[in-house]
Amino acid sequence: MAKCAFLGLGVMGGPMAGWLVDKGHSVSVWNRTMTKADAWALKYKGIACATPLEAIHEAEFIMMCLGDDPDVDAVFEQIEPGIKPGVIVVDHTTTSADLAKRIAKKCTSNGAHFIDGPVSGGEAGAVNGVLTVMAGADEAVFEKAVPVMQAYAATITRIGDVGSGQLAKSVNQICIAGVLQGLAEGLHFAMKHNLDTDQVLKAVSGGSAQSWQMENRGKTMVAGEYEFGFAVDWLRKDLRIALDAARKSGASLPVTAVIDQFYADVQKKGGGRWDSSSLLTRLNTDCDTIKDS
């Protein structure tokens, strides 16, 4: 079993760190809000630390699950002096590939290793320990980390070298945004024609239009319920990263760019914390009801 540090105990990080304990690993944690770290330690029998540097003191693996590039930069700056040779740093935050490459170089200069391993599967995937990890890393380093990541992930795929995991996560988010917009428009069309949406969803989900989003979010979208995890604010952050990378590479993402602005409309409606299926609200302004959380 490994000695692990987990930095960031949000809706994803908290359960992920909990699974490490459940699988027998020794885990020290840190969170910006110390009360959250204390509550986690009480629940999972881990060790809550006051600073990131304290948390990584004896760690063989350092996991981060934070918010955005600046958050990762700030936390890594605090832990860099304590990173020992041979340690493997795994960043599960969704960030830019440029950041991943920059931190990897800093790890290498300390004799340590780095994996960019953004995750997919949402809060439910974290709680159930069945996340998908898209990893960018040296192959030998990746193989050493897989048994540890299996505590909270069902699918772990090495995409390529450092940075490629983050680029693969952008692919994931680009696809999700497109599917959700299509689903929102389809449901809007059905509602405007007074169709029985339950019957419509039953019919089309049995054919080629079927998707995870349709199966899991179709009925809640019709009901105006948008409290199911991945927030619009976070998806817009991810789409910003994808669009920035596209501009640098010359990739064309015309639909993604438009949908990103649709999500901006949802934010203007006060929906920044609604889940990402809330695209329907900008179409159904006359008949959609948002239920209080």
TrEMBL record:
Keywords: NAD, Oxidoreductase. It comes from the Bacteria. Pfam families: NAD_binding_11, NAD_binding_2. Its EC number is 1.1.-.-. This is NAD(P)-dependent oxidoreductase. One of its GO terms (molecular function) is oxidoreductase activity. The keyword NAD applies. Residues 4-160 form the 6-phosphogluconate dehydrogenase NADP-binding domain. Residues 163-281 form the 3-hydroxyisobutyrate dehydrogenase-like NAD-binding domain. InterPro entries: 6-PGluconate_DH-like_C_sf, 6PGD_dom2, 6PGDH_NADP-bd, HIBADH-like_NADP-bd, HIBADH-related, NAD(P)-bd_dom_sf. PANTHER family: 3-HYDROXYISOBUTYRATE DEHYDROGENASE-LIKE 1, MITOCHONDRIAL-RELATED.
